[in-house]
């Protein structure tokens, strides 16, 4: 039987009874646009997490990575994200078509803070925009255009606690399943482990920007 919580909170009042008060700066720091501080952070970020939600409230979080600057700051109200070759599931696209809501977290290696952006999104094929995102002459088939509703810096406590940028303190990776092992055991695709490993190796070497 799955775990059932015994002390469930149902309102912000119940939260504030435990932890009360919020510093004024934590409210005032939230912008409705990309200012110069957020812009330079986004332009230096090679990795982000993109969250979307469907009309039933199901949430999807997807990692996105490329050379720093891959997310374009089009203007103070607009970001553009290239869509690179992937698993062809297009979960984020489906959610954007259903609700248009999106949330982004931008990381910069060796910095503890993150920048968060929330807003609405569209999937577009504007050629001029997509051409600015080409890598190795490969123009992405799609781009996600984000209209910014909130943008703000988030403190570094989570990164500090995790020691994310301190590999000498990282837990050992011995015993972790490989991606191929997980796919083999979870998908029941009929492919052998060696066949899956070969496909993944090919994808990692040859399909970063090409199908």
Q: What are the SSEs and their pairings?
A:
Layout: H1 12-16, H2 24-28, H3 36-44, E1 47-53, E2 59-65, E3 72-75, E4 78-83, H4 91-98, E5 101-107, E6 114-124, H5 127-131, E7 142-154, H6 157-162, H7 179-187, H8 193-206
Antiparallel strand pairs: 1-2, 1-5, 3-4, 4-7, 5-6, 6-7
Helix pairs in contact: 7-8
Q: What does this protein structure show overall?
A:
The structure is a single chain. The protein has 211 residues and is of the alpha+beta class. Helix content is 29%, strand content 26%. It has eight helices and seven strands; from the N terminus they run αααββββαββαβααα. A seven-stranded antiparallel β-sheet has the order 2-1-5-6-7-4-3, with helices on one face. The longest helix is centred in the C-terminal third of the chain and has 14 residues, at 193-206. The model has no long low-confidence stretch (mean pLDDT 96).
In short:
This protein is α+β, with helices and mostly antiparallel strands. The chain has eight helices and seven strands.
